[in-house]
Design goal:
Layout lengths: L8 E3 L8 H12 L3 E8 L2 E7 L3 E7 L5 E8 L4 E5 L7 E7 L2 E10 L4 E11 L12 E4 L9 E7 L6 E9 L3 E7 L5 H7 L7 E4 L2 E4 L21 E11 L6 H17 L11 H14 L4 E4 L2 E4 L10 H18 L4 H7 L6 E2 L4 E2 L14 E3 H15 L4 H8 L2 H10 L7 E3 L5 E3 L11 H16 L2 H12 L12 H18 L2 H16 L1 E2 L16 E2 L8 E2 H18 L5 H17 L32 E2 L17 H10 E3 L5 E5 L3 E8 L2 E6 L6 E8 L8 E5 L9 E2 L3 E7 L3 E6 L7
Antiparallel strand pairs: 1-11, 2-3, 3-4, 4-5, 5-10, 6-7, 7-8, 8-9, 9-16, 11-12, 12-13, 13-16, 14-15, 17-18, 19-20, 21-22, 22-23, 24-25, 26-27, 28-29, 29-32, 30-31, 31-36, 32-35, 33-36, 34-35
Helix pairs in contact: 3-13, 3-15, 4-16, 5-6, 5-7, 5-16, 7-8, 7-10, 10-11, 10-12, 11-12, 12-13, 12-14, 14-15, 14-16
Length: about 750
């Protein structure tokens, strides 16, 4: 599928060309020459499994309202036969052919949304080269003609993000479909054939779906066969259906989130790991304070380098570290001394003439354009000032309020449609758009959040009107709303806060547009390609709409925004939205550990870096990890991403006063109550059918007490693992839990 200014592509195939595969399907369906093997139903959907001339098909129809033809397997010369089904299956088919044996399994689900899963495995009889496999998804009209159905593709796979396509049929009115290809299942295929599923799910109407990656063909093509006798998964397709398409973009986004949630629950999810973010935080504080590569002095003040011993100090970096250190100091119970050292230099970024915070200090080198600013850079430092101000910091409040007027002036000048980069002295545009002809489309979200902070601080309705205007200006962006992942997350948080303040449900609904765009740009699969087998990318968001990598700053800043989203949204959120956001945060706590260079084999680290260099001895994260297994850290080692450790530690590790342990949980704890001296009741707020990891972490020089964890129904949970340091449990992600222990804290 082509991507331009807007992902939405409305197609009438009668005015487009057709490949031989479309024409062959059209002919077989017109002539009724396929051999029917089995029929079953999913609600009102009728599923027919049939063998055609070169493929096994699943024909999915709504009576008199069209359907979908899914090419389950491309097997020229194959002979199909039904096998006995296994538990949870609707059908199982074996196809024998000269290339080997295909096993195709069909499973159906209709408890909520209608869902069909089709998994295809191949065992080759000889080392098998795969030069080409056709796409697998074809809309059909009411007469089973793939050239007769018209509709719109709203979103398709971008790069190595999730292999999905989201479409609806206009004529006939079959409904809406989310096709999700579980790329995790095909890692063996990608490794054997030396391919990667980059933009693999998309297509041109009416030939859509998954294009199995194959080696580039030339006079001397690569020779990377599937091994003989080894079973390899070729496809694991999950199709989620809705009968009634959305009537507007907000409902379309809500349905997308709902349907993606259904597909997500069908996956075999990787197990997240416990991470000691407290020890990581302590190491990071030490390195920030002691390493000459971390900080630099100007005007007698201390400033943070953006990258290891590299780049000029800037306000976004300074405020990011200050805000994270502030959170960590609160968690510790006393301020981290470094925070005050870094705060002292904030005023040097303020330009009294423009009445705004500049990106760079006044003495920035001539190799930088001192007047240039990325649109989001103007607002992100203000957001962190707002967080401090709302916690009672008067200095942060003063600096925020004397800078906010310029931010509003910029918003008015650009009419809430910000460019990539502009000159702060006159608003002249330096870089109008990115490669896809879009500006920073989600800056309005973070702008709105800052405005709502100012409204909360002052009560001035000007700021509320500004927040509404910025969010209203995002109407019509659909799946092109995301420019940078963390800005999109803050936009979702702003929408929910705006809904709470105004009681206008359209803002809650608009939050789903932000979420849909965010999760469209996530890698909801676990790659084992190349170096990626040494780290996790599951549920990671690529940092920009067209970026090839995940970045630590966008990872933990999105995590922070989503904490506010869940807190303000509460039980009124669409359940799938609450579940997906909670799952993103759960996996971020585990996955983000691999950004630290000491967590990776040395040979996986890039030796040529765009910024600075990598020092494995320093507890600062790399900027970039890649789903296709490229070397990590090509962009550099981010000192400005060091706040990740503090954010993750303070949100996942919970102190229990007087107890000899801390409580770790990879979900947000929404409520807790000490009902007795040695009894703690907690309430989690994750997905209804998901699980959270909860650990009892022994404090230094204390003994682990005898303890139990029970559900609200009184069911005692068994530990998954125990050690001298920790007891691990797996608990319902939205459950109410009771922790009981014996004895008081004693030294060892």
């Amino acid at each position: 599928m082509r991507h331009g200014k807007n992902d939405t592509v409305t197609m009438d195939p009668r005015h487009a060309g057709a490949s031989s595969y479309v024409l062959a399907l059209q002919s077989e369906l017109r002539d009724r020459s396929m051999k029917r093997l089995k029929r079953f139903a999913i609600g009102e959907l009728e599923i027919e499994i049939a063998q055609g001339a070169d493929s096994l098909w699943a024909l999915i129809r709504r009576p008199d309202r069209g359907g979908i033809a899914l090419r389950a397997a491309y097997v020229p010369g194959g002979q199909a036969r039904l096998l006995a089904v296994r538990e949870g299956e609707a059908a199982r088919v074996q196809v024998d052919s000269p290339m080997g044996t295909h096993i195709i399994c069909f499973s159906a689900h209709e408890a909520d949304l209608q869902r069909l899963r089709v998994t295809v495995e191949l065992t080759p009889v000889a080392p098998l080269l795969v030069p080409f496999l056709p796409r697998d998804l074809y809309p059909l009209d009411a007469n089973d003609d793939p050239m007769g159905a018209s509709g719109a593709v709203e979103a398709a796979q971008r790069g190595l993000n999730s292999g999905m396509i989201y479409l609806h049929m206009n004529e006939p009115r079959f409904g809406t479909l989310l096709y999700f290809q579980n790329l995790t299942a095909s890692n063996d295929y990608y490794r054997a054939t030396d391919t990667k599923p980059d933009g693999a799910v998309g297509g041109e109407w009416p030939e859509l779906g998954y294009l199995t990656p194959s080696p580039p063909q030339s006079g001397t093509p690569p020779i990377n066969p599937l091994p003989a006798g080894k079973t390899t998964t070729l496809s694991d397709a999950i199709l989620v259906f809705r009968e009634r398409p959305a009537t507007d973009e907000r409902e379309m986004a809500r349905q997308f989130v709902q349907m993606l949630g259904s597909a997500y629950m069908a996956l075999d999810l990787p197990r997240p790991e416990y991470r000691d973010w407290v020890s990581r935080s302590d190491r990071t504080v030490g390195d920030l304070m002691n390493s000459p590569k971390a900080t630099i002095s100007h005007y007698g003040n201390l400033y943070v380098h953006p990258y290891t011993d590299s780049e000029y100090p800037d306000i976004m970096v300074q405020m990011s570290i200050v805000a994270a250190l502030y959170d960590y100091g609160k968690w510790l119970g006393e301020p981290v001394p470094l925070e005050a050292d870094l705060r002292r230099g904030l005023g040097r970024f303020y330009d009294p003439k423009l009445k705004t915070l500049r990106r760079y200090l006044p003495n920035v080198g001539e190799d930088k354009d001192a007047d240039a600013v990325d649109s989001w850079y103007l607002y992100h430092p203000l957001l962190n000032l707002g967080r401090l101000a709302l916690d009672g910091d008067e200095a942060a409040r003063a600096l925020l309020l004397k800078s906010i007027g310029f931010g509003i002036e910029a918003a008015h000048h650009f009419r809430y449609k910000w460019p990539i980069q502009y000159n702060v002295t006159d608003f002249s545009v330096i870089t109008p758009t990115a490669n896809d002809d879009r500006g920073q489309t989600d800056v309005g979200g973070i702008y709105a959040y800052v405005m709502l902070q100012c409204h909360q601080l002052t009560g001035d309705d000007l700021y509320l009107r500004e927040a509404r205007a910025a969010i209203d200006a995002t109407d019509g962006m659909r799946f092109n709303l995301n420019y940078q992942a963390n800005l999109t997350a803050w936009g979702a948080a702003a929408c929910v806060r705006l809904w709470r303040v105004t009681d206008k449900t359209e803002y809650l609904e608009q939050s789903y547009v932000y979420l849909a765009s965010f999760f469209h740009n996530c890698e909801i699969w676990e790659s084992q390609i190349g170096a990626a087998e040494h780290y996790s990318n599951f549920m990671g968001a690529t940092c920009l709409q067209d970026a090839p990598y995940m970045a630590i700053y966008e990872c933990f800043d999105s995590f922070t925004a989503f904490e506010y989203y869940l807190r303000d949204g509460g039980p009124d959120l669409e359940p799938a939205a609450r579940m997906l956001v909670s799952e993103y945060c759960k996996y971020a706590l585990s996955r983000a550990w691999y950004y630290y260079p000491d967590a990776l084999p040395k040979e996986l680290l890039a030796t040529e870096n765009r910024n600075g260099h990598i020092d494995r001895e320093l507890s600062f994260p790399l900027e970039d990890l890649y789903a296709d297994g490229q070397l990590a850290g090509q962009v550099g080692q981010e000192i400005y991403g060091s706040g990740a450790a503090f954010v993750f530690a303070t949100r996942s590790q919970h102190k229990v006063e007087g107890a000899p342990f801390r409580l770790y949980c990879n979900h947000f704890i929404r409520a807790s109550e000490r009902t007795e001296e040695n009894v703690l009741t907690i309430q989690l707020d994750g997905g209804e059918t998901c699980f959270a990891d909860l650990s009892i972490v022994r404090l230094p020089r204390r003994r682990m007490p005898d303890l139990t964890i029970s559900t609200a129904d009184g069911d005692r949970l068994r530990p998954l693992g125990t050690s001298d340091q920790r007891i691990d449990f797996r608990v319902p992600a939205n459950g109410r839990l009771i922790l009981q222990w014996r004895g008081k804290a004693r030294s060892r």
